[in-house]
Amino acid sequence: MEQGSVRNGTFAEAAVGGVAGVPLFHAAWLFAAGIALTAAVWMQPGTLLISLILLTAACAAAALRAPRMTWIPMALLWVLLGAWCAEMEPHPAPAEPLHGLSDGLLRTVEGTVTSAGPVRGELEPDVNESGAELPSQRVDVRLASIEVVDDASDRLTTVNGTVRLTIRWAEGQTPFTIGCGERIRAAGRLLPPQRYRDPGAWDRAAYLLGQGVTSTATVKAERVERLGVAQRRTGLPFWPCLLSNAQHAAAARLLALPAAMRGWPGPLRISQEDAIMLAAMVTGDRTFLSHGLRVGFERTGSFHMLVVSGLHLAIVAGFIAWIARRLRIPRAPATLLTIAVSFGYALFTGFATPVQRSLWMVSLYLVGRLIYRERSPLNTIGFAVLCLLVASPRSLFEASFQMTLLAVVTIAGIAVPLLKNSVEPYKNATRDLRTVAMDVKLAPRVAEFRVTMRMIAARMRRATGSRWVGARALPWSVRFVLSCVEALVVTLVVELAMTLPMVVYFHRVTLFALPVNLFILPLLLVLMPAALVTLLVALISPAMAAVPGAVTAALLHIGVGLVRLFGSKAWGDLRMPAPVAVQVAGFCALLAMAILLARLQRRGLRRSAWAALIAAAVVAVAPRAIEHPRDALLVEAIDVGQGDSLLIVTPDGKTLLVDGGGFGGGPRMSAPEFDIGEEVVSPALWARGIRHLDAVALSHAHSDHMGGLPAVLRNFHPDELWVGNNPPVAPYEALVSEAAAQHTRVRSLREGDAMTLGAAQVRVMAPLPDYAPGKEPSNNDSLVLRVAYGASSVLLEGDAEAPVERGMLEEAGLESTLLKVGHHGSTSSSKPEFLGRVSPRWAVISCGLRNRYGHPRQEVLEELQAAHVRTAVTDVNGAACFSLDGKTDVRMSGCGR
């Protein structure tokens, strides 16, 4: 049926033939649709089970009485099967006793290390306030006991659960390495993982919970006691530790290569950065992969080169399959060998969830290929996806699964059919040119191509006098060009299909992804085997690994050079909001149409597949309106933990961001492994559909207000950066330099300055014109703004303390409908006389849950209550949104969108 539909070339017949020809593919996407349905609608498993029984009976009746209509109940059956599996899958939950004891009190815990990273120091330092390097190590500990303190006793009690400890050494201390399998005792303040309750923000707590981690803590090295190696009854450490230790040992061998290759020329020498990239690429150890190394790969959409992903596993599997084919190993044993080696490599690289999923995908694909041969790649993919989703329905919502699935479906469903009917026949026609009898079996246009090739080969032979030029060089050259065309088609199809997940999960469209990946992907096919050989030799001797290391270095430098060439051009990296549901639905519909059109025989209709695919990408990146009230001033207090970040959107869509959050307090800068501006503030803005900010204001130069602003400047390119009177410390100067690099005008403001922001008016209340900051940033440096819309207004205090508040009491027009309480609700701010003059209806306090400063202080909350001011606190409420109607009313709501 499928062949007939293709020959006739009609859209309707191709659609019918496609359903019959790839039943498992359609079963897979219907099953996935049922899983997706449970994300929007909860369905009782018992009701679903009854419905499944009734639908099964309906399918049997339709098969007997109306076979042509069987597909309707069958489709519904697969959808309900997906929903039932999703509802029946258990959700990960924290270990309750441990979760209850994760309250920030200093407790002693004892347990076994189940995962240990290497000590970070010189390669990726953590930095203290003075800039000194502080070594640290991350370990996961499966607890056996925890300290419980009550009025009657102080004792260790048995508890189950896993905690993630970050062990830090002080300046001058010599770090020691804690290995997987050791038993340790440590004293720390356990807390649940930080969760930022903002729309669009990454949920780190859910991520750690998926790894079985209930609580986290940072402990000082002197509070860690090593109790020896935990052993099983066999006397051997358990196998995850053996694999983890092997991974880190292999990474250490690669990191030792720079010292062994000092005398080699630069292009053939593995540098320290090269070794770090190779360790991440081959062993999966990304401990030392800094932001500076990542940024170019992220901007060019080639970060997959640096991580062990499905692509790397597929290359390893393909390399083993190629060797097995060369050795003429039969199909079934070759498949088993490929799966076994892929499984071993996945274990060695850490067996992370994306790698596990890629392994199952590769394994099921190879098994499915044995069953279906290679007649229907889509059917084989459907078989693999169906097995994966049955085993773990929740994986459908994970980015890695969606991106892997989208890539293989578009290659098999669009690229392969397009190439099969265009480039592939001509590529095959270049083989055995002297066999004229083959011509009659080919399509006329392909036969004509062979005749032309034969004529050109004859002329080249007469012109050069060499039979080899015409018989070998010419066909090889043509095949190479056609192979490049195939690579271009596959890369272009995948890049267009990746537009949606790139925008949804990474808010990024990379203009250079196509040219970079066009070279990176073929390069990886050679680089990965070379890197693996280098690793295997390095395990024997780093000195012997210099020779394969030189080949690896040359290949790596080509790829890195290309990435850095394009990655340095920031304008090629576009950041944008995620599409709305209508855009996602439109993308999926156009992608399905492209798959259907690519299978048609008629050339004109087949070319329409390109139009549908390009239209799908355009729909995914189409601009969307900013979500905000059209008749009110929006004030959103973004949940950035212990810090400040507030968004203001005027009724006519003008935007102002005040502060960008950060880590800690005082001058300490953000940890290098987590950028709150990139991970929290920017997603909150993108969730509203914001692409560009009209202005950004910095209250003062403490890191909990300034830490996220560099990323905000890069992502949203504001027209202006408003600053007060800040001391010229290095982080502040770096922010000003970033603004200059983004062509953002820096405006220094003082009390009395006024600006217009769309329908709103902004007035500066502090700092006073004669204010002189100290050598280091302080709370009283704060830029205090009053934003008014009609008769309503919001006063943004920053961290202004009592002296600044007293100075503002002398100014007129201090009354405000909404107050952003100064200094996170500390007793140093919000004095009764100041609250009396401001006379707000609502107040909002931005602070972190269980912060070490005790914010907000009970005294401040009582003062606000005494003044009849309703108060929202981000540590309790999460992100809080307020609508100021321009009269006297202010409405507070959650910010879920």
TL;DR?
With 897 residues, the chain is of the alpha/beta class. It is globular and about 100 Å long.
Task: Provide tags for this entry.
seven-stranded mixed sheet, globular, OB fold (Dihydrolipoamide Acetyltransferase, E2P), 897 residues, eight-stranded mixed sheet, alpha/beta, 15% strand, disordered N terminus, 26 strands
Describe this structure in words.
It holds the Pfam family DUF4131. Keywords: Cell membrane, Membrane, Transmembrane, Transmembrane helix. One of its GO terms (cellular component) is plasma membrane. It is a multi-pass membrane protein. The protein has 32 helices and 26 strands. It is of the alpha/beta class and 897 residues long. Among the domains are: 88 residues, no CATH class; 142 residues, Nucleic acid-binding proteins (OB fold (Dihydrolipoamide Acetyltransferase, E2P), Beta Barrel), CATH 2.40.50; 88 residues, no CATH class; 46 residues; 262 residues, Metallo-beta-lactamase, Chain A, CATH 3.60.15. The strands form 5 sheets. It has an 8-stranded mixed sheet, with helices on one face. Strands 1, 4, 5, 6, 7, 8 and 9 form a 7-stranded mixed sheet that branches. The two termini are 47 Å apart.
Radius of gyration: 31 Å
Class by helix and strand content? Answer: alpha/beta
Span between termini: 47 Å
Please list the strands of the largest sheet in the order they lie side by side. 17-16-15-14-13-12-25-26
The top-level CATH class of the domain at 633-894 is Alpha Beta
